[in-house]
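Annual report, structural modelling task.

Input specification for the 3-isopropylmalic acid complex:
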Amino acid sequence: MAATGSPRVRNTSSKAVHMVVDSGVKRVAVIGGDGIGPEVTAVALDVVEAAGVHLATTAFDLGAARYLRDGEVLSGATLDELRGFDAILLGAVGPALGETRIPGGTLERGLLLRLRFELDTYINLRPFIGMPHSIAEGCDFVVIRENTEGAYAGEGGALRRGTPNEVATQGSVNTRFGVERCVRFAFELAMQRPDHRLTLVHKTNVLTFAGDLWQRVVDEVGAGFSDVHADYLHVDAACIHLVERPDRFGVIVTDNLFGDILTDLAGAVCGGIGFAPSANLNPTGTGPSIFEPVHGAAHDIAGTGIANPIAAIWSAALMLDALGEHVVAERMTRAVLAEARSLAEVPQSRTTEGIGRSVISRLSDG
Ligand code: IPM
Ligand code: MN
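The model returned the following structure:
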C-alpha cells in the first residue's frame, strides 16, 4: 500500500522546496459489480464514513453487466489503474444466469481471479463467528485459503473438444514458495489468537504429491512456532468436523479449491453465507488487497432493497484494519457482529439500508 501519513518533501522544477503534506486519506477502488453487489457496498461505505474514516473512493464499473454491455472484462489499463489504489472493495461479480463465457474462459476467471492473481493477493482470509441458533453457535475460527495457485492456476487443456474422444485435464499447481508464504501467514495468525490452534486441511492420502508438499511445509514452518498446536484433517473429515465439532477449529490453512468449498460450508454452519466476509490480502503491499463478501450477486433479490449487507460491512471493516485503522476497524466489527447476532436471534424482515443504519447506531456502543 502507498505510504501515507508523513509529510513528503518534493523538489519542484523551480528548485523551490515545497512541503507536500500527504493528507493520509486512503484511496479505495469500489467495484460494486453485479446484482446486489452495488447495494451492499454502498451501505458498507456509509458505515465506514459514519465510523469516522474518510476514504477517497473511485467507482469502477466492472462485472457481468459491463461485459454484456460493451465487452470490457478487465483491460490492462484498468488493471494498472487499480494497482495504484490502497485497497479495493468489491461487491459481487456474476451474471444473472449461470456463468458468462468470455473469449478464452469465464468472467469469473477473467475478472475476479485475474484481479486476485495479478495483484498477488495470496491470502484469502475468511473469518467465521457462529451466529445464534446456528450449528456453530459461539464458535470463532478463520480459514486461510491459498489464493493464487492450486486448481485455480488454470493448468490444463482440452483436446478434441466436442467429439466423442474429447479429453480434458485440469491440474493443480503447488509451489514451495506459494505454499510456504501461505502457511507462514497462517501460523503467524494462529500465534495471535488465544487458542493457538492450526489445522492443515488437505487430502494427503490421495493427492500425494501436493499433499506431501503441504504437510512438509507445515511441519517445517511449524517447527518455528512451538506455541502453536498444529494438527491435520483430510478435507472430507474436516467437513464432518465443521458440522459436528466446529469448536475444534482455530485457524484452518488449506489450498485454493478446498478453501473455496470449506468456506461455503463454514458459512452455512455459522448462520448463512450472508454473514461471511473475506479479505484477499497481499501482505507484502506490492498491490492493493481486495475485500469482498463471500456471497454472490443474488440477482433474484437485486433491486428489492432486502439484501443482507452484513458480509459487505464486515469486509469493509477488514479493509480498514488492513489500511491501518485498527481501532475503528475493531469498533466497526463489534457493531456489525452485534447487528448480525440480533438478526440471527430473531428472524425479521429488514432492509439493506435499515441494517446499515442499525450498525451505525451500534458504533457508539463501545
Ligand atoms: C469465492 C467464489 C469464487 C471462487 C468464484 C466466483 C470464482 O466462489 O470467492 O469463493 O471460486 O473463489
Ligand atoms: Mn466460493
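The chain has eleven helices and 16 strands.
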